[in-house]
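quick q for whoever's on today - can somebody do inverse folding on this one?? i tried earlier but teh output was garbage lol. tokens:
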């Protein structure tokens, strides 16, 4: 199986650690490795470096190659412009599919945490086996929900269709976005819903056929890029064609229109967390909801349910704090309530028109 790990995006909700020039997936949020490096590390016990591709923005080429020196140079897929996930997945599948059109390919993301890595690899193998049996198929990998999350997408699935060594396979029904709290609570209590991490396994030939059917103009551009692979015009073609591709999410382009009969779902407890925002990172790391999660030189008393991360040598002292986010970097100190994290993006946008734009 081939694997494409996507490492694009800016990650504004993890500001001030995540910046335009160094997004969250390249930062050492915890420990001494970035989430991108951790994403590759969790694969390599079972998968070879030469089978792992990294898709990212061209402007991040240097930092990505520095962090992943064992990935072959030809396996870096560099996007010259930001065109959303639809074109990004399409170009990745076009490039991998040039030589491996019917090989199972997993689409994964670099800014997540995974506590149960062995289970995750096991599920990837199960998805690979399903796709090998039917090249014209797609397998969605869902995370069994831990709480009624309104900030994630959900997968609804139907009856069980098969079982592989104790892991059940289900029929796909639909994707749900931004549910209300009452809807999320209903999903949590049901056995037919899971969080949607955005992971799936399919073949390039099949997924490109879906692009052709549902977004034909976008497909024509992808066809031009694929035809130029291996020629002297490849880089020029990508630079010319890709920025003009329709800006559309992969879900809007394909998953919302695909025949559900082609799609299966594996819903498992992977210990997966989307750490795209500070409150999500706290949930991923905490053992109990009321505990304080800290990093760096911290002294915190009579406080509960806080995330306090200090990336400097300065001591942070907190007293009587509750449900707060405190992030201290060399040039920015962020203090806000957990409920105010969605407002971080708006603050960063406002900085663009100020003398502090360099901090974005």
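ok took a stab at it. sequence:
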């Amino acid at each position: 199986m081939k694997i494409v790990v996507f490492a694009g995006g800016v990650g504004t909700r993890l500001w001030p650690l995540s910046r335009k020039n160094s997004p969250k997936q390249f930062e050492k949020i915890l420990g001494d490795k970035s989430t991108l490096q951790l994403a590759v590390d969790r694969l390599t016990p079972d998968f070879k470096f030469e089978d792992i591709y990294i898709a990212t923005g061209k402007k991040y080429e240097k930092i990505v190659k520095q962090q992943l020196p064992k990935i072959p140079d030809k396996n870096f897929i560099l996007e010259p412009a930001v065109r959303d996930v639809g074109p990004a997945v399409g170009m990745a599948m076009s490039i991998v599919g040039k030589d491996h059109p019917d090989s199972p390919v997993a689409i994964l993301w670099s800014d997540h945490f995974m506590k149960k890595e062995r289970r995750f690899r096991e599920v990837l193998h199960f998805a690979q086996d399903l796709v090998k049996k039917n090249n014209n198929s797609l397998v969605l990998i869902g995370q069994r929900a831990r709480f009624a999350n309104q900030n994630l997408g959900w997968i609804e699935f139907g009856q069980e269709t098969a079982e592989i060594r104790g892991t059940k396979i289900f029929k796909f029904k639909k994707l749900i976005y931004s549910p209300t709290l009452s809807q999320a609570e209903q999903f949590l209590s049901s056995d037919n819903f899971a969080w949607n991490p955005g992971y799936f396994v399919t073949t390039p030939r099949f997924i490109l056929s879906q692009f052709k059917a549902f977004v034909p103009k976008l497909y024509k551009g992808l066809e031009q890029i694929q035809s130029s692979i291996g020629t002297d015009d490849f880089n020029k073609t990508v630079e010319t064609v890709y920025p003009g591709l329709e800006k559309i999410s992969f879900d809007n382009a394909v998953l919302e229109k695909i025949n559900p009969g082609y799609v299966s779902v594996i819903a498992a407890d992977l210990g997966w967390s989307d750490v795209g925002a500070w409150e999500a990172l706290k949930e991923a790391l905490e053992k109990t909801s009321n505990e304080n999660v800290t990093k760096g030189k911290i002294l915190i008393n009579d406080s509960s349910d806080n995330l306090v991360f200090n990336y400097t040598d300065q001591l942070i002292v907190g007293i009587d704090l509750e449900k707060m986010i405190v992030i201290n970097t060399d040039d920015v100190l962020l203090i806000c309530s957990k409920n105010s994290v969605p407002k971080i993006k708006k603050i960063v946008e406002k900085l663009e028109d100020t003398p502090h734009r360099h901090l974005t």
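fwiw The chain has a mean pLDDT of 93. also Residues 2-276 form a domain with the Spore Coat Polysaccharide Biosynthesis Protein SpsA; Chain A fold (CATH 3.90.550.10). so keep that in mind when u check it
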